[in-house]
Amino acid sequence: MEDKIIRSEEEWKKILTPEQYRVLREKGTERAYTGEYWNHFEEGVYKCAGCGAELFSSDTKFDSHCGWPSYFTPLAGDRVVYQEDRSYGMIRTEVLCAKCGGHLGHVFDDGPEPTGLRYCINSVSLVFEKKPKK
Fold first, then answer.
1. What does the pLDDT look like over 21-73, one tens digit per residue?
2. Considering 63, 68, 109, 131, which has the largest number of Cβ atoms within 10 A of its Cβ?
3. Secondary structure of the chain: what % helix, strand, coil (to 5)?
């Protein structure tokens, strides 16, 4: 992964929309079935809305029926980092962008093969870049 991006909270507030800031910087979540990408299946790459790092491929996206975009693996192991999340009386594994530290969502062990994982990611944490036509 490239060099990490470090910005002040005031800088983030200038760069991000209020909803992006709430999710990426304050660890919020969007309501299920409301995000732009939960039911989006075009070919391309999903990037971090905070820094543009390429995080997930449409090749690993699947319909998990949870209301958020779901992937069974990130593009590469160094694209995301993990942190224990004990909020709301639960123990979960939070997924963060390795480059800017933005909150993306959580990972669960109820996904499809080959990994058995479900990366449940907020749409507002992502921007999509469509695969160019050949």
1. 999 999 999 999 999 999 999 999 999 999 999 999 999 999 999 999 999 99
2. 68
3. 15, 30, 55
Q: Catalytic: which of 51, 97, 100, 120? A: 120
Q: Which among 56, 60, 48 has a CA at the least distance from the CA of 99? A: 48
Residues 82, 24, 26, 101, CA torsion sign = positive
Contact 69, 61 (CB under 8 A): yes
pTM above 0.70, yes or no: yes
Alpha helices in the chain (DSSP H): 9-15, 18-24
Q: Is 48 a catalytic residue?
A: no
What local confidence, expressed as pLDDT, does residue 2 receive? 62
**Would you call 19 exposed, middle or buried from its count of C-beta atoms within 10 A (0-12, 13-18, 19+)?**
middle
Where do the DSSP E strands lie in the chain?
Answer: 44-48, 54-57, 61-62, 70-71, 80-85, 92-97, 103-108, 118-121, 126-130
Please compute the mean of the pLDDT values over residues 3-14 and round it to a whole number.
94
Q: Which residue has the higher pLDDT, 125 or 77?
A: 125
